[in-house]
Amino acid sequence: MQNMSTNKTRYPIAIKLRYSLMRFSVLLLILWGSLPTSTWAQDAPSYNMRFVTANVIDTVDGKDVIVFFHVSAAKAKDFPPVVSMRVMYSVDGSEVTKASIGRTDNVSIIAFDRGIEGKSKLGYSLVKDKVDLNDKADFMLLAIFFKDLTRKPISDMAITYGLWEKRNTEVRVEKEYKFHVENYVP
Question: Which of 129, 142, 135, 126 is CA-nearest to residue 70?
Answer without folding.
Answer: 142
